[in-house]
Specification:
The complex is a heterodimer of chains A (243) and B (273). Chain A has 243 residues and is α/β, with parallel strands linked by helices. Chain A is built from 10 helices and 10 strands. Chain A has 2 domains: 195 residues, 2-enoyl-CoA Hydratase, Chain A, domain 1; 39 residues. In chain B, a hairpin with a 2-residue loop joins strand 1 and strand 2. Classes of the chains: A alpha/beta (243), B alpha/beta (273).
């Protein structure tokens, strides 16, 4: 399955989604939003897919941010807001129960970084650069970054990145917990594949229960999170008895 | 007449802001307001009048509305090591203290605040720093939350902001043991964002503040609101807040200027409108 700006491939239980505008550093465009929406819907609905990997085509970037050449044609704020929630790509990705891995190389900026933050695991090659330059352009992140980033690295570190717009390298991203692992460029996709295979080898219901327990639990007071965990344990145990 | 809404970057910088005590001085450098604490005579302890003066200074900068960034620093080698004993004893009776009021005023700043730390920081000093957006420190700085050793609790937000900045486990360790940590450890656990050699930190703070001033003021303010308020919301609610603020920004001239300047490959000139 292929879209104008996203390549979608399936090998085993792994879906590979490749942002494919290398001549524009994979800049996130309206077309890419629509393509990703379809590709992520396929990840959600295809029972053969157990885990997905998101990566960028070309040598230079995972995704260098939003395609600003489209910003001049933006509809009115009222229409833009309506469209945002009619086709809620970020909500779709964040709501997936299947695990997602972002494999980032080169520039991972703005919406690119935000896209990776919608994934569960982030691995990066040592040439990766991360940053949120929005405030320097007179706007704020709008692909969830102001919410997902502090939940991953904490509010204090998030404010440093978004207020200054500074770029950080893969080592610093690893130190502050923005990425889970750093590899050489050559090892990036093999590492992503081996992680994905290890996840795909587990019981998918247990994997998804674990992901949802963590992600939903983070929104809850501890006691309610513990209750949610107990429900998921119950669910997975009852399956084992039946099976 | 009537209240004119405060637009960041639209007010006039006052030539002189109130200087009620010698320990708290306020200076402006461009669009940056620098508040300096000089607590050398009191061994780093913020007196009752000093706390009130610091709160008043923050409120005055906020009301004026012209500052695009704030720096809170001590004179070289110092920051703040706590509040006077009298204030701490009295707090149960009055449920507040001038130091706590200063922390509140800092946290409420409409412009981003940088704490520039150089030297030993403890108790209220840590709480003042925690109320800021960014904390940078010299490599000779040390940090401690010793309230429990004195049989009291931190009461200027330390039990709430510290875990939100460094996480519950690190916060409990600092609060329960009262141990002093050095700048490297503070950096490792995320209590400070950046560490510089002694002697550099105040200059770096001004440089960083200058860079914050180059950003779009409304986007900066909304960004802080989205991050800070969003952390108290569920992810779903936070995403709503972010999107609404984003669409509101679409009505600003600064957004147009930001996008245009990027496409024209030049530096943007934001006006806060």
């Amino acid at each position: 399955m292929s879209f104008p700006t996203v390549v979608y491939e399936k090998t085993g239980g792994i879906a590979w989604l490749t942002l494919n505008r290398p001549e524009r550093l994979n800049a996130f465009s309206v077309q890419m939003r629509d393509d990703l929406y379809q590709a992520m819907t396929a990840v959600r609905d295809d029972p053969e897919v157990l885990v997905a990997v998101l990566k960028g085509a070309g040598d230079r970037a995972f995704c260098a941010g939003a395609d600003l050449t489209e910003f001049g044609t933006a509809p009115s704020p009222v229409i833009a807001r309506q469209v945002r929630w009619e086709r809620d790509l970020w909500g779709l990705i964040l709501g997936l129960s299947k695990p997602l891995i972002a494999a980032a190389h080169g520039f991972c900026l703005g919406s690119g970084l935000e896209m990776s933050l919608c994934c569960d695991l982030r691995i990066a090659s040592d040439d990766a650069r991360f940053g949120l330059p929005e405030v320097g352009l007179g706007i704020i992140p709008a692909a969830g970054g102001s919410q997902t980033l502090p939940r991953v690295i904490g509010g204090a570190r998030a404010l440093d990145l978004v207020l200054t717009g500074d770029y950080i390298d893969a080592a610093e991203a690893h130190r502050i917990g923005l990425v889970n692992r750093v590899t050489t460029r050559d090892a990036l996709y093999p590492t992503a594949e081996s992680l994905a295979q290890r996840i795909a080898a587990q019981d998918p219901v247990v994997v998804q229960a674990a992901k949802l327990a963590v992600n939903r639990g983070l929104d809850l007071p501890l006691a309610e999170g513990m209750a949610l965990e107990a429900q998921y344990v119950e669910l997975t145990l009852s399956r084992r008895k039946r099976g | 007449m009537g209240d004119t809404p405060k637009t960041p970057g639209r007010g006039r910088l006052p030539s002189a802001l109130p200087l009620p005590t010698l320990a708290v001085t306020v200076a402006t450098e461009g669009r940056v307001v620098v508040i300096t604490l000089d607590l050398r005579d009191s061994d780093g302890i913020l007196g009752t009048d000093d706390g009130a003066a610091l709160a008043a200074a923050c409120e005055s900068v906020a009301n004026d509305g012209a500052a695009l960034a704030l720096v809170l620093m001590g004179v070289p080698g110092t920051f703040c090591s706590g509040e006077t004993e009298a204030t701490e004893r009295g707090f149960l009776g009055q449920l507040d203290s001038p130091g706590a009021a200063a922390v509140r005023a800092l946290a409420a700043s409409p412009a981003p605040v940088i704490a520039a730390i150089d030297g030993p920081v403890s108790g209220l000093g840590v709480e003042l720093a925690l109320a800021c957006d960014l904390r940078i420190a010299s490599d000779r700085s040390t940090f401690a939350m010793p309230a429990l050793l004195k049989g009291v609790l931190p009461f200027a937000g330390g039990t709430q902001r510290l875990p939100r900045v460094v996480g519950r486990a690190h916060a409990l360790e600092l609060l329960l043991l009262g141990d002093t940590i050095d700048a490297a450890e503070a950096h490792r656990i995320g209590l400070v964002n950046r560490v510089f050699p002694a002697g550099d930190v105040h200059g770096k703070a001004l440089m960083l503040a200058g860079r914050l001033c180059e950003k779009a003021p409304i986007a900066t303010r909304y960004l802080r609101e989205a991050v800070q308020k969003g952390m108290d919301l569920t992810l779903d609610q936070g995403l709503r807040l972010e999107a609404d603020l984003y669409f509101l920004i679409q009505t600003t001239a600064d957004r147009t200027e930001g996008i245009r300047s990027f496409l024209e490959r030049r530096k943007p000139e934001f006006r806060g409108e």
